[in-house]
TrEMBL record:
Residues 149-718 form the Anoctamin transmembrane domain. Residues 79-146 form the Anoctamin dimerisation domain. Belongs to the anoctamin family. This is Anoctamin. Its main location: membrane. InterPro entries: Anoct_dimer, Anoctamin, Anoctamin_TM. Keywords: Cell membrane, Glycoprotein, Membrane, Transmembrane, Transmembrane helix. GO terms for molecular function: chloride channel activity; protein dimerization activity. It comes from Machaerirhynchus nigripectus. The keyword Transit peptide does not apply. The keyword ATP-binding does not apply.
Amino acid sequence: QNEDKWDFVLVSDIHEMGSEKNVKREKFLDELSKKGFIIKKIKDTKLFYGVRAPQHIFWKYQSLQRKADSRQQNSSTHEDVAETTRIRIVSFILRNTVTSDLEKLHDLMKKKVFEAAFPLHKEEDIRGILKDKWARWGVIFKKQPIKEIRHYFGEKVALYFAWLGWYTYLLVFAALAGLVTVVAGTTVFSSSQVSKEICDANTTFMCPLCDQNCSFWVLSDTCTYAKVTHMIDNEATVAFAMFMAVWATVFLELWKRERAIVVTKWNLHRWDEDEEELALQLINNLQHEPRQYQHSYFRSTIILVLALLLVMVLIGIAHMLVIYRAVAMALFTQSEVSLLSKHANTMAVMTGAVLHYITIIIMTKVNRHMALFLCNLEKPRTLSQQENSFAVKIFIFQFFTNFSSLIYIAFFLGRINGHPGHYVRIAGHWRLEECHPSGCITDLFIQMAVIMLLKQTISNIMEYLIPLISHRLRKKRKRPRERSRTLGEEEEAEDPCKRHWLNNYELNEVNVFSLFNEYLEMVIQYSFTTIFVAAFPLAPLLALFNNVIEIHMDAIKMIRLHRRMVPRKAKDIGIWLQILEAIGTLAVIGNGLVIAITSDFIPVQVYKYMYSPCTRENRTDMDCSTGYINNSLSVFRIQDFEPHTKVLPEFMGHEIKECRYRDYRSADDYTYTVQFWHIFAARLAFLILFEHVALCVKLIAAWYIPDVPQRVKNTILRDKHKNLRNELSMMEYVTEV
């Protein structure tokens, strides 16, 4: 037994003798001593208590493990317990030790009796390897040392990094496909007939974009935007959206195989979380009774109602952003500053996106508290159930926080705002905003780009700088106290543990949610990468850049800036796999809707095959989308404007009698034309077809790639066979004797 090997350190303020906190602390430490723990006290500006568990605790754990895992039945020797296992057992016992006042460590920390409790970072080879091969920027493109991560941080953290590495590796293919789509858009489709017509339409006068002081404008003003739109809104995007639906499935199927290989290598395929928890409870207290499984319909109903209320609030916030954009648009157009009034629409969308980002940051904090509250209401039985329940809730809340504004832009913007002479208004005053003149997909593209770039740059910088700065500040704050000492204290200060414990205490604290936050961040990013990818084909590329940095930033944080996490055992990534599968299905629906509803892909196809010159004259030398723009704009007579609309009838020396707007309405009574219903039917047909084909392809891909590789199945089979044979030969040997 190494005398300097301390499993855990408890930190406490120096309380007065006889004070309530002092009494509570002593009671807790007495309970630990009764269990045979060795406790070492070091006094500095705080009190540090090193805790070492007695060896018999680990022997009990080993023998219970052997019973559970029959392969090691014969070996009765006590080999050394892995350090991660040691820390995990000690952490469990510390958390579940009850004082005579029926208080646990958690309660004592709430009452400030103890300030912190953490395992120590070890100054040993394995940490050196991790620092060298993993937690520095120089090794950014090297393979991660998953084996070492497991030996130092436990299986749960190792599986997170194995998953993140796998996800990042497969993003390369998605990013390449996205790049090809954009390149195809800029080269093959840049000379598209539709954008050419928009750029040439300098005599097409469009209806004003606001009620007061807005003049008419010429369609050719939006030439640049039209080119950008057709860079992302073309035939290649449909193929790309289909590819991403398959990619999401293949990624998860291949991850399941990877996980099976890793878990078998670690000998964890037989391991059972419930059994582990029961074993630890019994080692801690032999009189322990297990918590029964419970389910209350009443409690579930309350949780459901409260969750729905919060989702309503989140959707309400999205509505507030819509109202902001409508009002901002009106104010910007009337602004004295020419820059604002000229680009009112773009400015409203940009500031709206920044505002959306700010609401995301604020609501994330609210969502976390709400999810925790609902989780406590549910009273999960074990720690892993608690984590799963919390994960599902927070993901749903975060999903609505991040996506409700995007869903509005993709599917409602410009479809519910009425038409000239009969606009839908907020409070009877402000017109709802319209899509960008070159198509609704541009708005979605801008919003996605702004949110993804802001989210990834700002969040990553903050995620790295905050721990770095707080670590530096903690160091500064703790050191000045080391000045004047009397001689007696000087000798005590030479304790070799003291410097080590202080260094660990100065690091940033970690909690149960430290790893959880990383998963959540990645899963939300995965949603951005797959769900509306048809509108923003560069999303996988941005995600790839982000992840390459993210892996090493997380590594540096864990090794150099944070206290050591309590290692946890796990044989999969838990509920996150189901969440990722759900996102995969949402991605098929989302992309199908974007192509069918948001983009101009369907109207152009309907025009080509039903209304274009090609259908009337069988000419092969002309582009079938010729005349599409003129066909897609309806005519509005100036005299039919609402009375309070102030429009200057003169524009560029022309006397204007009628203007154009994007819609399929008749020029006489402004009702929908037959072509509108044709397009509507085609959109629905495409949506049903796209989703069924994509889901079928997903199912085929899932069936085609087995979850568990054959060699892993064969290894498990051989193990079972060997065990049974050994059992039988032992029995025969006993009967013969």
